[in-house]
């Protein structure tokens, strides 16, 4: 698939993989550390670690010959996953923590809680604002281009419809 989301999920879409990467971002690197932190079965952990190594998110480095033991260290690709983990943390805290926040991101200098936001580096604006949209990139095939063309056409039709976003039809509600 050409979809970068689908390709990413192919590597980390299984929840154990995301939790292993979370723990690696916290500094864990050894098999026994991951197993203790996650409570995961050894065979499942071995499969997930191998998959993360094959995907280039972790690298295996031998630290003991007798017995043979490897450390699993983040690669640049793995470290680039940190904003995804922080976004999942914030989203989970916002929508799935009825008992309250159990883990939060803070500024180490001030101790103030931080809510991560994706921003456009050129303008500093959050990229969830309406002026930002997904469009086909230079490597997009015909299917991807058609899909995004259909989305853009539907968005335009919605804006033109009476009462749609961007509609210039006068408001019918009255106050007073």
With strands numbered from the N-terminus, the spatial order across the biggest sheet is: 1-2
**Which strand-content bin applies to the residues?**
5-15%
- What is the CA-atom radius of gyration, in angstroms? 22 Å
Q: Roughly what percent helix?
A: 40-55%
Instruction: Find the CATH superfamily of the largest domain.
Output: Winged helix-like DNA-binding domain superfamily/Winged helix DNA-binding domain
* Domain module count: 3
Structural category is mainly alpha
Terminal residue distance: 56 Å
Biggest pleated-sheet summary: 2 strands, antiparallel
Q: Per CATH, what is the topology of the largest domain?
A: Arc Repressor Mutant, subunit A
Count of individual helical segments: 7
For the record, the CATH architecture of the largest domain stands as Orthogonal Bundle
